[in-house]
Amino acid sequence: MSFAMQTRGRGASSNPANRFEQFHAEPDEADWEEIARVDPDYRPLKRTTEYIPDNARSLITQNNSPDISFNKSLNPYRGCEHGCSYCYARPYHEFLGYSSGLDFETRILVKENAPELLAETLSRPSWIPESLACSGVTDCYQPAERKLKVTRGCLQVLADFRNPVAIITKNALVTRDLDLLAELNRYQAVVVVVSITTLDAKLAGLLEPRASRPEARLGAIRTLAEAGISVGLSLAPIIPGLNEHEIPSIFEAAAEAGATFGSGTVLRLPHAVKDLFAEWLQQHRPERRDLILNRIREIRSGALNSSDFGARMTGSGPLAEQIQQMLGIARRRTHLAKRREALSTASFRRVLPRQLELF
Predict the structure, then answer these.
(1) Taking Cα atoms as reference points, which of 177, 180, 130, 70 lies closest to residue 344?
(2) d(C-alpha 33, C-alpha 31), whole Å
(3) How far apart are alpha carbons 88 and 293 in whole angstroms?
(4) pLDDT of 5-61, one tens digit each?
(5) DSSP secondary structure letter of residue 80
(6) How far apart are CA 253 and CA 350, in angstroms?
(7) 330 to each of 55, 82, 326, how far by Cα in Å?
(8) What are the two backbone dihedrals, phi and then psi, of residue 21, each rounded to the nearest 5 degrees?
(9) For 116-172, how does the pLDDT look when each residue is reduced to its tens digit (9 = 90+)?
(10) End-to-end Cα, the chain, rounded Å
């Protein structure tokens, strides 16, 4: 019995050392094994999720990466309870003094004042209207949003100002805010991208334990499309040896549900995520672990990660080219556009604090 087995419902099975910290406490698996020999029914305490107030002073983040389609983004939460084992955002938690592992999905920082900060920024004369991405890092519709409604508060502000926003999520909860999305849509100011990694519900439950299952995400695409909201597919990440064979079927399912555009990006494994994902493979796909890791190295110039602009989203080499060809064929067969239509800032209006009280 190992410590890694005690994380049901979580994507990570450990809490690796923070690369910025000098000291790190490591659980002794021998202790768990000794207790288990005496009491076979013993289980360590379940790790619960902790929500921590994040008293942010600013909300909108500038993006300088040439291979990302947005310039500015807002993130109501830091950390993500969806617990996707492969998440490239996990290392950001290390800047907060936490681990990329279980800490990332159990210690969620909540920007409770996000709507107020957003309204303050958009009301400044210096704000030049442009499309915002929500979120650029962690999912704005993760489980905490159901009760906390921070994202909904931000959407209300965006609707008041008629400032365009592109939403990306793995959670069907986005349909809860159909009223605000419809209001933004009146001014060509909203698009929703639903991320789908696999159509296999069992695999999705292991890869992305607390995200909506594939059928629910397809249902969200259908609901949004029927309401006239521009909605598309992001097949992310594409993991060579695990899910790239699903590219045609995922595109077909998304198109049938009403998506009008679709894209895909290959797996990125920065910093501690490399080891976390290798642990996940050892636990859930041990017979394919080496094959998958070797294929990742094949598209990453012999490493498990590459941060080179221009290639980090697609990889490089013959296998990466084959994946891009599969994406192209899937798009053509399903008649999905490669990119979404541009959003409009033509209806933006600057709303003063007193005016906001009237809405």
Answers:
(1) 130
(2) 5
(3) 16
(4) 345 678 776 777 777 665 444 555 555 455 556 666 555 556 789 999 998 888 999
(5) -
(6) 40
(7) 44, 28, 6
(8) -100, 140
(9) 999 999 999 999 999 999 987 899 999 999 999 999 999 999 999 999 999 999 999
(10) 57
For residue 321, give both structure tokens.
């080219």
**pTM, entire model:** 0.88
**CA pair distance 293, 278, nearest whole angstrom:** 8
Instruction: Please give the angle made by the CA atoms of 143, 149 and 155, to the nearest 5 degrees.
Output: 115
Q: What pLDDT digit, counting tens, does each position of 172-183 carry?
A: 999 999 999 999
Q: How far apart are CA 157 and CA 351, in angstroms?
A: 9
pLDDT value of residue 100: 92
Place of tokens 């899910």: 243
What percent of the chain stands above pLDDT 90? 75
Tell me how far apart the alpha carbons of residues 192 and 139 are, in angstroms, rounded to a whole number: 13
Contact residues for 319 (Cβ-Cβ < 8 A; gap 6+): 240, 295, 298, 299
CA distances from 163 to 8, 75, 108, 240 (A): 40, 16, 27, 38
For residues 242 and 288, is the Cβ–Cβ distance under 8 A?
A: yes
Find, among 69, 82, 101, the residue nearest to 216 by Cα: 82
pLDDT for res 4: 39
